[in-house]
Write a structure and sequence with these properties.
Blueprint (H helix, E strand, L loop, with lengths): L5 H30 L8 H9 L4 E6 L13 H17 L2 E3 L22 H18 L3 E6 L7 H14 L5 E4 L5 H13 L10 H10 L19 E2 L2 E2 L19 H22 L4
Parallel strand pairs: 1-2, 1-3, 3-4
Antiparallel strand pairs: 5-6
Helix pairs in contact: 3-7, 3-8, 4-5, 6-8, 7-8
């Protein structure tokens, strides 16, 4: 029996160590790459390199904090906004998303505490300032969009139009992506109707199902309350409030919510937005 030399043993040991470390290194590289679309988790040299490599589209997405029925956490819009804009950036391939703006136009209600709202004027000023700051950083296309209805479409349209007129001559453009909100939600509501689900608005099935899909740490949706998650009925797109209304913050019926439906509306929002944004920036 031939005994391996000390050099061979050392070489074999080094190869084994390299192989053992490879998955860790690849995982670390993958983690780093995943962060290179999220502005607040990048270093300034990473931002500069990304811009030079062609990631010159900035995504500004708004969320919101409001009561969402007894079963959903108040920051649901921010949960959905962050996941949605991240998925949009990943699918576009040439975009970086800014920190999600957590407040949008709304009004607090002492009867159902949980809402923190700002005014349309304040949202307009914030969107304008954030958009112009992204332009200073070097982005050539700025997309504004939101997960909450407050301020849509008026504030977003006005800010995008104003800034686009200001910067277009420099080859810089600001656009409002409206497809991610009303059109995507309308398409999902049609799917629900076609498949025998009751209509829902605020705090109903669409909101709850999407939150269930995204609720990876099981802290955003109170599943034990789903069996009673029914509020004012929705008829012809409007909640019907009457003397027997539960006044629980739900418009519609969330009882049949599940993660499968949540994934469907999530994917719809991403696909609708990506298609529109590619049209804006001249990509197929």
């Amino acid at each position: 029996m031939r005994i391996p030399s000390a050099r061979a043993l050392m070489l074999g040991l080094a190869i084994n160590v390299m192989l053992a470390q490879a998955p860790v290194c690849l995982a670390a590289a993958g983690t780093k790459a995943a962060h290179l679309i999220e502005f607040e988790r990048m270093t300034w040299p990473e931002v500069k390199e990304a811009l030079a490599a062609g990631k010159t589209t900035a995504l500004i997405y708004t969320g919101g904090v409001e009561q969402r029925g007894p079963q959903n956490a108040t920051g649901g819009h921010n949960l959905m906004a962050h996941a949605t804009v991240k998925a949009i950036a990943e699918k576009l391939g040439n975009a970086i998303f800014m920190p999600v703006l957590p407040f949008t136009p709304n009004n607090a209600n002492a009867a159902m505490p949980g809402t923190i709202g700002i005014t349309p004027d304040l949202l307009s000023a914030m969107l304008e300032r954030i958009a112009e700051q992204t332009i200073v950083n070097g982005f050539r296309n700025v997309i504004v969009m939101g997960d909450h209805g407050g301020g849509q479409p008026k504030v977003y349209e006005e800010v995008a139009s104003k800034l686009n007129a200001k910067y277009a001559a420099q080859g810089i453009h600001v656009y409002y992506c409206d497809q991610v909100y009303v059109p995507a939600n309308d398409a999902f509501n049609k799917y629900l109707a076609d498949n025998g689900y009751p209509p829902s608005l605020h705090g109903g099935l669409p909101d709850t199902a999407e939150m269930m899909y995204l609720d990876k740490d099981k802290t955003w949706v109170r599943k034990n309350l789903l069996r009673t998650a029914v509020g004012d009925p929705v008829i012809d797109g409007k909640p019907q409030v009457g003397p027997d209304s539960p006044h629980n913050g739900i418009s519609g019926d969330a009882r049949r919510s599940d993660a499968r439906l949540g994934k469907k509306i999530f994917d719809m929002k991403v696909d609708y937005a990506v298609k529109q944004i590619r049209g804006f920036v001249g990509e197929k």
